[in-house]
Specification:
The chain is α/β, with parallel strands linked by helices. The chain is 40% helix and 20% strand. It folds into two domains: 282 residues, Aldehyde Dehydrogenase, Chain A, domain 1 (3-Layer(aba) Sandwich); 191 residues, Aldehyde Dehydrogenase, Chain A, domain 2, CATH 3.40.309. The structure holds nicotinamide-adenine-dinucleotide. The site of nicotinamide-adenine-dinucleotide has 31 residues, from helix 10 and helix 11.
Length: 507
């Protein structure tokens, strides 16, 4: 049993110190073919606690040679009868068992994610751990329901033909995920891939490798055969090696648009199937008749939740001129009420950014915004008295202009860029004037306006009088440069399978 599982219940601080003590010593290994192994190169890297800036432990730094071993293991597992002949019912069962094991270890996993990523443990428990449990349970329902169909073909010869389709696993999947929702992003990919019968090599982000390794260990415990779920920890080079590998049939990626484009270029060798969940710059559109209390609370949560490190963050506010100042004041009040600190403290609901690099990026955008003419309403700096952690205050920049970089580029931090509008004709054009198209929020009590705007906005998800609701049952993904394909729902099962059309001559 791993150090993580050996930890027993207790408060978050004592669980964290037990976990950290258990993780000292030998570096956390890669997980290849059911075994924890060090990198072929022997290289390791440090994973840090963003709340303290201190090292948690060393982790194996996978490279191309390790990716090759993991892909070979995944290819063998694809034809291992224990996996490829596993009945649909049994595949459901192992996925549900994995969900049970995540549930069993929920407290330790929530704390592990908190110390590795920085987000408060109260939130990691709900978003990462309970979210992942729901994802595995949802996709556990699909193997017994996901199949083909019989189709009424009309051959010219008049021959009697039975035509039917079957769904087959796409093969070995390279899954590359970011650091902002480490375990749930992994679950969003691993669960449908395994439900479809694929095998996987998961590459977690270098900032947050720990829960992915634990998840793969739990998968083994759940009865998923060795080699079906492998994990390569490491940097972008390991991800690129996975994208390049001829033994990988599909790449599913969540991360920045820039790296997404590199993945498309890198996957052409064997024309891998590619799905991409990329960046966003989501508009929050507020009409004059909106319920301002509800809108302010939700817009604040939509940009400050997870310290703004959310692909769907509502980072562009379009408030009607008549309510703009009132609304901004209310959002600033919500920002002021956030409790910033170490996420192990149960009263904290706003943790540090994930890294020093991310802190520098966010801070530089606040400077750029002010230089370009935006006005700082609140935040914009490191809060006092929180030591060496990567903390950044919730920030609002008003008087933003449509061509400013803070309106056009993804900051990926707790920074709201506010614009005011008065011309309804120009509103949709402004909201759509973006390279991204992941999501949008609309605030109004006018039913016609709500539906009109929901239809006009170019985004994969539109929320009306709500924001950031996500569910395994409904597709999630982006228009434009926010991605290719949709995760969740039946669409996710389709991403991880191939359709075969079979013609049988019955004449
Ligand atoms: P990133 O693109 O820098 O890294 C993501 C992953 O890709 C990491 O595992 C990284 O090691 C790997 N990687 C880096 N270079 C690579 C390369 N050349 N080839 C293959 N893999 C490579 O993104 P990040 O900074 O970790 O995450 C933030 C980004 O993720 C934001 O842009 C955010 O919007 C996006 N995101 C999108 C969604 C969504 O569903 N649309 C969800 C979460 C995050």
């Amino acid at each position: 049993m791993s150090a993580v599982a050996q930890a027993t219940a207790g408060d978050a601080y004592s669980i964290a110190s037990r976990l950290e003590a258990g993780l000292k010593g030998a570096p956390r290994g890669l997980l290849i073919d059911g075994k924890s192994v060090q990198a072929v190169s022997g290289k390791t890297f440090a994973t840090l606690n963003p709340a303290t800036g201190k090292e948690i432990c060393q982790v194996a730094e996978g490279g191309a040679a390790d990716v090759d071993l993991a892909v070979q293991a995944a290819r063998r597992a694809l034809t291992n009868p224990a996996w490829c002949n596993m009945s649909a019912v049994d595949r459901s069962l192992v996925l549900n068992r994995l969900a049970d094991l995540i549930e069993r270890d929920a407290q330790e996993l929530a704390v592990l994610e908190c110390i590795d990523n920085g987000k408060p443990a109260t939130l990691t428990k709900v978003v990462e751990i309970e979210g992942s449990i729901k994802t595995f349970r949802y996709f556990a329902g699909w193997p017994t329901k996901f199949g083909g169909e019989t189709l009424p073909v009309s051959p010219r010869s008049g021959a009697k033909i039975l035509n039917y389709t079957v769904r087959e696993p796409v093969g070995v999947c390279g899954l590359i995920v970011p650091w902002n929702y480490p375990m749930s992003m992994a679950a969003w990919k691993v669960a449908p891939a395994l439900a479809a019968g694929c095998t996987v090599v998961l590459k977690p982000a270098e900032q947050t490798p720990l829960t992915a390794l634990r998840l793969a260990e739990l998968a083994l415990e759940a009865g998923i055969p060795a080699g079906v779920f492998n994990v390569i920890t490491g940097f972008g080079e390991a991800g690129a090696a996975l994208v390049d590998h001829p033994g990988v049939d599909k790449v599913a990626f969540t991360g920045s648009t820039e790296v997404g484009k590199a993945i498309v270029r890198g996957s052409t060798g064997n024309l891998k199937k590619v799905s991409l969940e990329l960046g966003g710059k989501s508009p929050q559109i507020v009409l004059p008749d909106a319920d301002l209390d509800a809108a302010a609370a939700s817009i604040a949560a939509g940009i400050f939740f997870n310290q703004g490190q959310t692909c769907t963050a509502g980072s562009r506010l379009y408030a009607h001129a008549s309510i703009h100042d009132d609304l901004l004041g209310r959002i600033a009040d919500h920002a002021a009420k956030l409790t910033i600190g170490n996420g192990l403290d149960p009263s904290v609901n706003f943790g540090p950014l994930v890294s020093e690099e991310q802190w520098d990026r966010v801070s530089s955008y606040v400077e750029i915004g002010q230089r370009e003419g935006a006005e700082l309403v609140c935040g914009g700096a490191r809060p006092n008295g929180l030591g060496d952690g990567f903390f950044f205050q919730p920030t609002i920049l008003a008087n933003a202009g449509r061509d400013m970089r803070i309106v056009r580029e993804e900051i990926f931090g707790p920074v709201l860029s506010a614009l005011s509008w008065s011309d309804p004709e120009d509103l949709v054009a402004q909201a759509n004037d973006s390279d991204f198209g992941l999501s949008a929020g609309i605030w109004t009590n006018d039913l016609k306006q709500a539906h009109r705007l929901a239809g006009a906005v170019k985004a994969g998800t539109v929320w009306v009088n709500c924001f950031n609701l996500v569910d395994n049952a409904t597709p999630f993904g982006g228009f434009k440069q926010s991605g290719w394909g949709r995760e969740h729902g039946r669409q996710a099962m389709e991403l991880y399978s191939e359709v075969k059309s079979i013609w049988v001559n019955l004449s």
